Amino acid sequence: MAGSTLASPTAEAAAPAPPAVSGRDTWRRFRRHRLAVVSVGVLGFLVLAVVLGGWGWPVAIDEIDFAATLQGPSWAHPLGTDDLGQDLLARMIYGGRISLAVGFAAMIVATVVGVVVGALAGMSRRFLDPFLMWLTDLFLSLPQLPLLLLIIYLFRDQLKQAFGVEGGVFVMIVAVIGGLRWMPVARLVRAQFLSLREKEFVEAARSQGATAWHLVTRHILPNAIGPVIVAATIEVSSAIIAESTLSFLGLGFPPDIPTWGRLLYDAKDHLDVAPHWALFPGAAIFLTVLSINFIGDGLRDALDPRRVL
């Protein structure tokens, strides 16, 4: 009939992708998690303290004062001093920059590698998926700490020559930690891709001739990014703990670079006379990791589409 209008198959196939959750809705869900909101404030304070603290407390980290060795907190030294009379507040501020930088840089490496591997495995319908998952399981089965130590012994000197002492150790630790932490992200992304690639809006875009790159970047990855963000927050805390462990074992940054883990290592022989030396860097690591974990919990709740607004 002339008055009737029939929908073409092309128009039916062009089903739009489900709308993304707005930022306002995400924030409404996130702020319901009280511990996550408090953790944002705690983590923000720690970040600002280590980034801007040098201007508020301009004390050299290598200034030695033998008359003030192993002193407790005071007005002159708010966090006390070490066995050389060096100010622990200044060393905490300096070391916090390195510890946080290692954590976030290693997270970026692990997330990028994990997303690429997971996306390739999730979009593959033939041999690539089994091979990448076999590779992922292989890396998961490797003992990480012995492998970390082996890689550090093999490549530490070459990287120091290429990037300098501090830069070489930073590149090595970030590459090693990030290169051994991508597997959970890859498995998560693969699972999301396997589920989303069969959805109606993806099939609609595929029927209109969309390329695999277009499907991944415009339809699948944006809808899978929520769990990836949550996983990335966990990787930050894992990287900070791994760097602290290496520094505590004396295999991270050199002794004159006071990361939080290195401060703990230096304080272990003076716990009976100067417990403050270990208490403050240990508390900083604890609060940072705990805050990041709570923020990850809040993001998981906020980005879960199954939860009611």
UniProtKB/TrEMBL annotation:
One Pfam match: OppC_N
Transmembrane segments: 35-57, 98-120, 132-155, 167-189, 228-253, 273-296
Membrane topology of this protein: Multi-pass membrane protein
Region (Disordered): 1-23
Domain ABC transmembrane type-1: 96-296
Protein's cellular compartments: Cell membrane
Keywords per UniProt: Cell membrane, Membrane, Transmembrane, Transmembrane helix, Transport
Main subcellular localisation: membrane
Protein origin, superkingdom: Bacteria
Family: Belongs to the binding-protein-dependent transport system permease family.
Protein name (record): ABC transporter permease
Species per Swiss-Prot/TrEMBL record: Methylobacterium ajmalii
